[in-house]
Amino acid sequence: MKIKVFSIIFLFLLNAKLFAQSGTGSLTGNIVSFQEEPISGATIQFQNTGIRTKTDSRGNFSLKAIPAGTYVLIVSNVGYTATKQNLIISEGKTSIINLQLSKSKQELQEVVISSIKNPYQVKNSGSSTRMDVPLLSTPQSVQVVSSQALKDRQAFTLNEIAGTFTGMKANNGNGSFNMRGFTAYSPTDASFLLYNGIRGNLFLWSQQPLLYNVESVELLRGPSGALFSEGAPGGVVNFITKKPMVQSSYGVELSLGSWNFRRASLDLTGPLSKNKKLLYRAIIGYDKSKSFRDDQNKENIFFAPSLTYLFSDQTELNLEVNYAYQKTVQQYDNGTFIRTRPDGTFDFNYYPDHLTVQSPTDYGKTHNSSATLTFNHRFNDRLKMTAVQRIVNNILDYTDHIPVGKIKNDSISRGYQDWETNRFSLQTTAYLTYEAKTGPLKHQLIGGADYNRYGWTKNDYQYKPASRISIFNPDYSNDPPSASIKAEESDDNKRITNLVGLYLQDQISFGKQLKALLSLRYDSYRAKETPLSIRDNKQGDELQASGLIPRVGLVYLPAENISIYGTYLKSFNPQTSNNVLAGGPFPTRKATQYEIGYKGDFFNQQLSTAVSLYQINYANILAPAPTEENSHRQAAIDGTRSRGIEFTVMGTLQNFNVIAGYAYNDHTILSTSAFGKKGDRFNNAPKHMANVWLKYNLRTGMVKGLGLAAGLRYVSDQVGLISNQNFIFPEYTVLDAAINYRRGRYNLQFNAYNLTDKHYFTGSRSGTVTGGLGEPFNYRIGLSYQIK
User: Fold this and answer.
1) CATH at residue 195
2) Which of 221, 370, 480, 676 satisfies CB 3.0 to 4.6 Å to 141 for a cystine?
3) Nearest-5° angle of CA 381, CA 53, CA 516?
4) Three-class DSSP category at 24
5) What is the pLDDT of residues 249-276, one digit of tens each?
6) What is the pTM of this model?
7) Phi then psi dihedrals of residue 273, to 5 deg
């Protein structure tokens, strides 16, 4: 499988290189501002082609092997007005062009222009360092899936795009993901999902995060606590949302698909005032669907209005509001049943796909809302301030039937959960960025502070025993249990956590080729859980933790398109519970990562490649350790080690767009404990994952505007439960394909997923009775129209 993947990539690279070697010329030049200051990172691109590059730190650029002909050259950069110019490239000659760009506030429009011409490649990301730094100069493995890639995949949730990232997968149909061998799941890693680099996940852990208002998705691999505080040790996912634009634009999208899937969205943006200082954007979405499993229905309503006011070239204010309502039958996606054979092995094909774990009487209703106010002010060319206030509120009301114990004679005992909760997050972030020089050294400094107050004001949970059912012939007439049945477990409490963080970072440039990144963060947590009635079975919990989080990184650029980096990261995560009744207090979770890597942009810098080798040591993971007397007992695992290698290719080669990756990961327990022996594999952590997505775009002739795409996702076998190393989900390969036709403002698209109708399991939650089940063959038809 791996050999086939790399052979395909190699052949495409070789063919594109040979094609570019005949009948070509070159272009060099320099881009500066009207103050004669070099503009770094400006985009140089030939309209309606995949030929593009960016300027270096001195504003210089160079493009080679350009097919001879007449072109329209577009030069753009964030904060400057884009310019166009006709240009002739002659065979065997080098053209020279020098331009000046004037400052503007139309940077959002320019980003859109840039993304269309090379739709799969993103060269800059400010998320890892909170500065607009090229990925080549960032000492961390960062991958960005662009807006066009989301559209080509017709991916509407994070779960549907997770497999496009190298080394990432969705464990089930909820908000649980695996990155570098670690599971990121909201109840234990509240901040692994960021919005524009700010904490505050809009969606609860029982939901698949929606992408209606998402422009691109970033994966920052490894611990990222130096800037973002706690998070999953395997990585952090950052959503870049769509912002108001200076140019008016109105778009509509309609989709239909398998299992009665229906989706519609509207995206409106433009100026609200004649002087174009007040801009707006409004995104409205609705979808409804059933499932290949029995009695599973889902309905989403999404609304995201935003406003931007441009006080001047130096100052702007942005307000973004999100509201998401979800109504479901069966809020949690618990997958389907797995049969245990008499000899202790497992039959993953025994029970049909359509069977469901829950009851048709279950329901879920979720109201998610957020508001983010962002203020940016540039004092001068060297000093800038950003202040952000983000508020998130989640209200959940759901009931759920869950399997209890083992399956016997194709029947299962069940429990019943009834839960109402009201959760919140108030995040205040402010930081300054400053550029300075000390002798020959250049500094990009950032210093800031965070205050996060989060938790819940209501947490009303009850658990009762429910009737036993036959799996093949279930009788739900006794669902839900009678109100007279006494709850065996109950929560009725509130919890408030206060987090204060301070951080300082300096990216030092030792000339053009060597850079160092030094970061230090201090975090202090204070949390208290208070019972609201005698029904609460915990009767209080308190948490106090503090610590320093360092980061050290080095980047060496032997050429302007190649970098080699090394990084050392640490983080700590307070336990989500230290309750004595659950076995607490528990030691703080700690992660230490060592990583070295390589990044390179080739073929006129249109194709980005990256290789990284890493090791993460993680101590004091809190995991379930139930006993007959205490089903909620927990314990901290002494430690685990995750190490591996990742390879990624993204970008454009002539008419081809490509995203490809391979990841090897070995995540094992370091010492023998009640959970397993030293060397045992960690759960939901496959050793091998590979992905390829290729799209061919026809740009000339009778079928101009036609696009053909195909891809695969491969996941090797994975242990489903730490305590049972024989519970292994089989490997799987899923094939997908797509075809689209773009004509003027219309785009018609057809996507087919799991072409071979592969029966496969994606991961486990907490037992051997059920597993996350992958979707069988399904399809989507989409039509989009850009009104203006």
Assistant:
1) 2.170.130.10
2) 221
3) 55
4) strand
5) 999 999 999 999 999 999 999 999 988 8
6) 0.84
7) -120, 155
